[in-house]
Design a protein that fits this description.
single chain, alpha/beta, 4-stranded mixed sheet
Length: 336
């Protein structure tokens, strides 16, 4: 047959390898159905070089009539209530998520990255692999002065433009990465993406510094400082361990006020986390526990324990803020 119009149920069990074009004129509530449809065509016996999949979404006027999004959201909610599910099409009211799915945007089905946990783990693994393979690197890298810089060849693409990567310690003691383009704009908020774009091996040759390099480093440092002030105040980013722990404990303490769980030690720990930066070991511990879904009471006990063992905050007695410190920068520019 040249054309087959069918529902998922009617097409089940049919091998459609003689076809090479799929037209989706609806949006299934489970992504697997899209995969299954393509699988009935792209199977043993298929002779076409390419399988083409077209998907149609209703325009605004039709959407108001058929109310597709609301019906899908209700179906997903009912499914979650019965069997539980992590599959989500709608994080908010923006239709962009659906469009990204149908346009096969790279990474749309990937889980959300916990930036700080993954960043710490990945950075340590990069360091370990490099120094294990070449032990002399450890001494060489550790003896480098701050503000050291280099440049490597980079071919720009729409989402990965030319620019500078900057690693900096802020006045609050936080480690921050930023990637700024030639216009001085931040390219991405993902610390992990910035770490990965910096990847190169020992044999990667350095190229001449671009004339904008230091100017972009300055712009990056200003953006980091501005972000630290605006994104959660002195607690740092809202996705960070310090911000999340503070908000959780503040809410928990308010609920427990007047009970035995609202201890003086917990109150001191909450005050400390607001005033001082966390130690790196505390950040790693808290990120692991937050990612594993630790409860409020257990989180409070963990924080109090870390504080009593002097493994929680970097306490400055005079209360003075540190100077921001640029550790290093890497230029990403086309070879001339």
């Amino acid at each position: 047959m040249r054309v087959l119009i069918t529902t998922d149920i009617l097409s089940e069990g049919h091998n459609l390898q003689d076809s090479a074009i799929i037209v989706n004129y609806d949006l299934p509530w489970a992504i697997i159905r899209l995969i299954q449809r393509a699988g009935r065509v792209d199977r043993i016996g298929q002779t076409a070089d390419r399988i083409l999949c077209y998907s149609f979404l209703p325009d605004e006027g039709v959407e108001r009539i058929i109310n597709l999004r609301a019906r899908l959201r209700r179906r997903l909610q009912e499914n979650a209530e019965v069997v539980g599910t992590d599959e989500t099409f709608f994080e908010d009211d923006s239709p962009q998520v659906i469009l990204d799915i149908y346009n096969e945007k790279s990474g749309i089905l990937d889980g959300e990255e916990d930036a700080e946990v993954d960043l710490t783990s990945e950075a340590f693994q990069i360091w370990k692999n490099a120094t294990d393979n070449n032990p002399t690197l450890k001494k060489t890298i550790e003896s480098m002065p701050n503000v050291v810089y280099s440049t490597r060849a980079h071919t720009p693409v729409p989402l990965q433009p030319e620019g500078v990567l900057l690693y900096m310690k802020t006045t609050e003691g936080n480690d921050s990465l930023i990637w700024v383009d030639r216009a001085g704009n931040s390219v991405t908020q993902s610390q992990l993406a910035i770490l990965r774009i910096a990847a190169c091996d020992e044999a990667t040759p350095a190229i001449a510094r671009d004339k904008q390099h230091h100017e972009l480093v300055q712009k990056g440092a200003e953006l980091i400082a501005e972000e630290e002030l605006t994104a959660g105040g002195q607690l740092g980013k809202s996705s960070g361990a310090r911000f999340r722990t503070y908000e959780r404990l503040k809410s928990y303490f308010k609920q427990m006020d007047g009970t035995i769980f609202a201890s003086d030690e917990l109150s001191k720990a909450i005050d400390e986390i607001y005033r001082y930066p966390l130690r790196q070991s505390a950040i790693d511990t808290l990120n692991r526990q937050l990612k594993s879904g630790i409860g409020d009471r257990a989180l409070a006990e963990l924080v109090v324990g870390l504080r009593m063992d002097d493994r929680f905050c970097i306490v400055s007695e005079d209360g003075d803020k540190r100077e921001p410190m640029i550790i290093c920068s890497l230029g990403l520019f086309q070879r001339i």
